[in-house]
């Protein structure tokens, strides 16, 4: 179950406008792993946009890697966990797997994952748009900010609580050892219109927060907790460099400065 309704509408609008004539330029995203364990960040472009950083790479605890992204560009970034690409195991990752490959090469990761959605504008001086979404579920806390400015309006904070420990049993995703590695959204878990904001519930007036989305929102107030989250936690901020931090606060000892 992929991102839905209001988020799709916003990004279709931004995509169509970002393809208008203009002077293309490049933006740098720094992926920083603040988790006390390795992760495998992944990227996937929307239709018509190029693959960035081969679609996926390894990031050790405390490590940072830059990703050069052309403008305009629309797509998503997420973190994969528990991966092993040396075996024939399918899936290769416990969360966020993309067909068992290290380099996703445009493939979208298997939910549930915490998803960063990005829409870069074609012209310099125009604000870029980004958000973090739990519409399909959660696997890692993620923050996004500009590198040049500490302005709060340009920042998406991480989570105050770990949803893997708060996740209701019916939404839990467990690994082979029985550990909770992700939390599905109610839409992904139950595929019900009222949870998925579709059909007769396909408007902001009809689709309201649920007991499940409220758990998500309480833990991660800066993220989309469901498709018609209000006010929309969508950031528009100009910048040439952005930092995407996985596990941005109080996760072990892997704390380094970019």
TrEMBL record:
Q: Which CDD domains match?
A: TLP-PA
Keyword check for Signal: yes
Main subcellular localization, coarse class?
A: secreted
Q: Name one Pfam family in it.
A: Thaumatin
The organism's place on the tree of life at top rank = Eukaryota
Signal peptide location: 1-24
Subcellular location as annotated: Secreted
Q: Which Gene3D superfamilies match?
A: Thaumatin
Which residues are connected by disulfide bridges in this protein?
35-247, 83-93, 98-104, 154-237, 159-220, 167-183, 187-196, 197-207
Entry coiled-coil feature ranges: none
Kindly state which keywords UniProt assigns to this record, in alphabetical order: Disulfide bond, Secreted, Signal
Annotated InterPro entries: Osmotin/thaumatin-like_sf (IPR037176), Thaumatin (IPR001938)
Q: State whether keyword Secreted applies.
A: yes
Q: Which GO terms describe its cellular component?
A: extracellular region
Family label: Belongs to the thaumatin family.
Q: What is this protein called?
A: Thaumatin domain-containing protein
Species = Cephalotus follicularis
């Amino acid at each position: 179950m992929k991102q839905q309704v209001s988020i799709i509408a916003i990004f279709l609008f931004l995509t169509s406008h970002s393809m208008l004539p203009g002077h293309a330029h490049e933006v740098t995203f720094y992926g920083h792993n603040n988790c006390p364990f390795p992760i495998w960040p992944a990227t996937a472009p929307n239709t018509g946009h190029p693959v960035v950083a081969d679609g996926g790479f390894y990031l050790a605890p405390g490590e940072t890697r830059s990703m050069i992204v052309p403008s305009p560009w629309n797509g998503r970034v997420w973190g994969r966990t528990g991966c092993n690409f040396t075996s024939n195991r399918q899936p290769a990752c416990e969360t966020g797997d993309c067909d068992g490959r290290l380099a996703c090469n445009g493939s979208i990761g298997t939910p549930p994952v915490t998803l960063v959605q990005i829409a870069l504008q074609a012209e310099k001086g125009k604000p870029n748009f980004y958000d973090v979404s739990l519409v399909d579920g959660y696997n890692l806390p993620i923050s996004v900010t500009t590198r040049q400015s500490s302005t709060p309006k340009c920042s998406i904070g991480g989570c105050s609580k770990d949803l893997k420990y708060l996740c209701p049993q019916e939404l839990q995703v467990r690994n082979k050892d029985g550990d909770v590695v992700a939390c599905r959204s109610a839409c992904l878990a139950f595929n019900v219109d009222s949870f998925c904001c579709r059909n007769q519930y396909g408007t902001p007036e009809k689709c309201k927060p649920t007991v499940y989305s409220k758990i998500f929102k309480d833990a991660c107030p800066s993220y989309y907790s469901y498709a018609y989250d209000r006010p929309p936690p969508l950031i528009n901020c100009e910048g040439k460099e952005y930092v995407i931090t996985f596990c941005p606060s109080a996760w072990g000892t892997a704390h380094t400065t970019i």
